[in-house]
Amino acid sequence: MATRLPPIFTLLCVIFVSVLLGSAAKSKSSTGDSVLVILEPEKRAEYSIFLNGLEAKGYSVTLRAPKDEQPLLIEDGLPNFSHVAFFASDTKNFAKDITPQSLVQLLSLGTNLILTLGPKQNLLTSLAPEFSLLLPPPATPLVSFFPERADSPSVIPINAKSSSTPNDTFSVLTPGVGSVWFSGTPFALTPNPLLFPILRAPAESFAADLSDASGLVSDALVDASEKGGEGLWAGSSLAVVAGFQTLIGGGTGHGLDAGPGEDKQARVVWVGGPSLFSDEFANKKVVEKVKEERGLKVVENPSGNKQAALDIAGWAFQERGVLRIDSVSHRKVNQTGTPETYTTNDEIVYTVKISSYNAFSGKWVPYSDIKDLQLEFTMLDPHVRTALPAVRGQAGTYSTTFRAPDRHGVFRFVINHKRKGFTHLLYTTTVPVVPPRHDGYPRFLSAAWPYYAGAISTSVGFLVFCALYLAGEAKEDKRSKKE
Amino acid sequence: MSTASPLPQNFSQSTVANTASLLRILAFGLISAAAIASRLFAVINFESIIHEFDPWFNYRATRVLAAKGFYEFWNWFDPTAWYPLGRVVGGTVYPGLMATSGVIYNFLHYFNLPVDIRNICVLLAPGFSALTAWATYMFTKEMKDPSAGLLAAAFIGIVPGYISRSVAGSYDNEAIAIFLLMFTFYLWIAALKQGSALFGTLAAVFYFYMVAAWGGYAFITNMIPIHALVLLLMGRYSGRLYVAYCSWYAVGTLSSMQVPFVGFQPVRTSEHMGALGVFGLLQIVAFASLVRSHVSSKQFQNLLAISVVSLGVLGASAFVVLTYKGWIAPWTGRFYSLWDTGYAKKYIPIIASVSEHQPTAWPSFFMDLQLLIFLFPAGVIMCFRDLRDEHVFVIIYAVVASYFAGVMVRLMLTLTPVVCVSAAVAFSTLLDTYVDVKEPSVPEVSQNDSNPTPKKAASSGAVGSQAGTAAANAASSTISDIVNAAKSTSSRPKGIWGTDARLVILLNAIGMLVFFVFHCTWVTSNAYSSPSVVLASMNPDGSQHIIDDYREAYYWLRMNTPEDAIVMSWWDYGYQIAGMADRGTLVDNNTWNNTHIATVGKAMSSPEEVAYPILRKHDVDYVLVIFGGLLGYSGDDINKFLWMVRIAQGVWPDEIQEPNYFTPQGEYRVDDRASDAMRNSLMYKMSYYRFAELYGGGNAVDRVRNQHIPKTGPTLDILEEAFTTENWIVRIYKVRKEDSLGRDLKTANAFAQGKKRKRGKVGSRRRAIV
């Protein structure tokens, strides 16, 4: 029997292979194909590789200049596009409907965003804190003097291999994507669990002002370290690309909030500068010194920007790491059909089917690879919290059996699975747990023998008394007659 | 024998008896009609609607019973009440009321009379009031005679003290409980009089019905033992007492334990121990009297002394030990508050917060009983004159009920029947005396009868023809009677001569009765017939204006919220939300879980950021508050707010403190001098949210508290206004979801309104080494 590969691994391999082949393999998003790119139309040529790449994947790309009134982001309360890429990072003024508020509203409507920061302050500067991003002061781009190269210190090759993000089981960037050219603003990440770095800044880099630095030789880093706390804007704790998965509104589990909830999840990718997506960087070679037997050899490799840009867009546009709960069922052990209520101490079987989106086929396929899925049975507090393991032989099915607590009340089955890079899974089902019916208690209790004995002895005693009384009366009569 | 006016002579005895019987039936029919009719004001002035709070639950439960049958009702677990704890309704309810309605419903439907269950519920209380009148008639008949009984029936039929709990639509346990109370007492008296096990068992059966119908059954549980005990102490032990009490107690207790809500309480709680103790005592006394009949009196005396002492010690210590061990539940808070009126306020604010648990104000005695309250003592004294076993009962009942009625407003209800009975005895004695046309013709007739029957005593009552008030007259007659008996001299014959003297008294009495009827009608129509779900006010032209905000809000909830939405409100409105809006509630009028109520109190009296986790934890979708500031409706939540604070303080004394909600001067204010805790509390914010905007920059005045509300009103971050009724009486807020970006709602709101965020600490510019 062939070893079964985990689907996600297969998926990654397929993506990798297909991209390597440079084929026009369609790879669509799970939430829609329309992309709005906010960009001056004359600059489209600068991003043609990326945008053509998107179109080749099957997206329909619309361009909108920052000051154009049309097409609107949101019309009649509904988003006009499934995804919005914000490349106009140099622009200061925008059309009326492009505001930090409208961008957040887009997210709550389920539209995915790619936001690229510019060197100057614009609306994104005020939006970033809402995502728990800390931006350095304006016009302080990321600077690194390593490795030695001919380019400006603010144009940095970042080796994507060094960090697999967000975690070991899932990486936004294709493994082996190579070095990625970056130029722009880094940002620090606060410990917001929704936020994770996709591409970290190199350890040797820092954020600094280069604008009038030509003649000055001030030791900025020493300065900074003396001030204390200022060292924040340096090193690999900074990120240049970060992903953010919005929260499902965390409904109450009632009405429209029951089940998976009506809220749509959206993804945001913050990128330090739009140039990461540019043709210039995509075509720029990375010069690397490779150790060989006879000293160092200079190798020119193609940059990983083209692949990285599509990877980033692929994650942001919900092609990958997209999970959903197909169905949930619960029943009593040895019974079929979902009961309206459970009785205390019932054995309950809870089953959930989860599938993941396959961007190549555009279909949802069963997904069994979640290792740490948990089920909670809560009333105010979780009364039961148990692992929900995958069922062998049934793809995408997770099931567990547990005993309902000896406590009546309105309980909720809660699946709350939030992992970085993946869609959050939240599913609540409300079910009352009731005390046994009046005839549901055991009829005969061995502990009640004293009472049974009491009742029986009293009855017997009464019968004996009656018998004796009746018999005795007859005797007495006789006696009295004798007397 | 001379008479004041000529009497018709040529009637046979049976004709008189038949006519009297016919008249009694006619009178009784009219009394029933009056009793039912006077309770229909609520239906005529408003509509056929269930009133107030508790009736809404009873109505809802009855609908379940009618729709699903008794067994489903018994096992009914209501997941929407006390969310998320749920309520085991079958085991926490007195099912008598619902069962009664269910039986009537099924009975009518069996005969193909498709009567709506709501109409049965609405009209149940008036229907049972006619039965109460009948039971009171039977009871009073045992005390005096049928004519007193008719008077008592008429009194109880229209007296406001009973109408207050039994108008049409007031579908509460008390609606049938007073009938059961009086009828059980009647059966007890009948059993005692005849020493009948049949009547004793019947009393037990109706006692069981009472237990199934009302928590106030404990009144019977203690009244009958006290009566028996007093009779024992008076040396009136008899076989009749033994048979009546034992048959009542044994059958009644066993059957009362069949009610799920009562369960083993009759043998385990202190309230029921009296009945058990008297039962045991009766056995001992019965045994003692058996022994006495077999041994000599000297031996018996020794035996008695020893056994009484040892048994007393044994019994008391057993009681203490059992209580200490927890086998007998200690007294409940409600019970303590009966003896110490300040107890509840100190220790259990939840009990004190109920308006009907407040001590009674004296005007309400007059309001509820009018002339009867003056006749009542006279009637009790009449009972002393005769002091048969049943009169002892009335005296004890009068004393006990008077005390309880003074302690708790709602216990006025238990006082009312005995007041009616006593007053009827007094009044009918008066009428007997003055209607009787016989004149005291023979001066030689001796009056020093050692054991006068009531009729004789009454007819030979008043001295001369001084006509005071009826009560004073009756009382003085008794005193003079005693005095005369003591002197045993009668220089002058006593009695009433002439028609004029009689007419003065009789017209006076009838006049008082007429006033009584007017008073009752007025009180009933004005004070006790408001459904309190619908409010009425007067237009300038005198026409009635209906304020229907409650139903507007509940209907909105019903139509616009998800079916399983949870609404948080103060517990007063729990039953109404469940009944009218059909939505789940956190707390309701069945106040069994103090902590849960305190949780709601805490959420209401805390600032938003404290309240939000509480709301989320309890899955609250909507919050409902009652606000009367616009209309001047004083029963609103701000006025109840201090109770929420107190109850919350009882559970979280570190977080909620009552003094924080007052100004430093100790005033309870909602204007710009309100304390910070007050102004930040969720309740304040929900009440006054956008209130000042209504006045368009003018002076916003809270008409209940007569205070000016600051122009910049409170802001709400965790809630959004969902609905406010026409007169702003009910305001409903929706709980916001958590922010999708994981921010706290205050920040998210500030951002959505475009406010600049305070810049975090960001480093200064830095130059690079090049």
Automatic annotation (TrEMBL), chain A:
GO terms for biological process: protein N-linked glycosylation via asparagine. Residues 35-316 form the OST48 N-terminal domain. It is a single-pass type I membrane protein. Keywords: Endoplasmic reticulum, Membrane, Signal, Transmembrane, Transmembrane helix. Pathway: Protein modification; protein glycosylation. One of its GO terms (cellular component) is oligosaccharyltransferase complex. Component of the oligosaccharyltransferase (OST) complex. This is Dolichyl-diphosphooligosaccharide--protein glycosyltransferase subunit WBP1. It comes from Collybiopsis luxurians FD-317 M1.
Automatic annotation (TrEMBL), chain B:
It is an enzyme of class 2 (transferase). It is found in: Endoplasmic reticulum membrane. Pfam families: STT3, STT3-PglB_core. The chain crosses the membrane at residues 21-44, 88-108, 120-140, 146-163, 175-191, 241-261, 273-291, 303-324, 365-384, 391-409, 415-435, 503-524. One of its GO terms (molecular function) is dolichyl-diphosphooligosaccharide-protein glycotransferase activity. The keyword Transferase applies. Its cofactor is Mn(2+); Mg(2+). Pathway: Protein modification; protein glycosylation. Belongs to the STT3 family. This is Dolichyl-diphosphooligosaccharide--protein glycosyltransferase subunit STT3. It comes from Collybiopsis luxurians FD-317 M1.
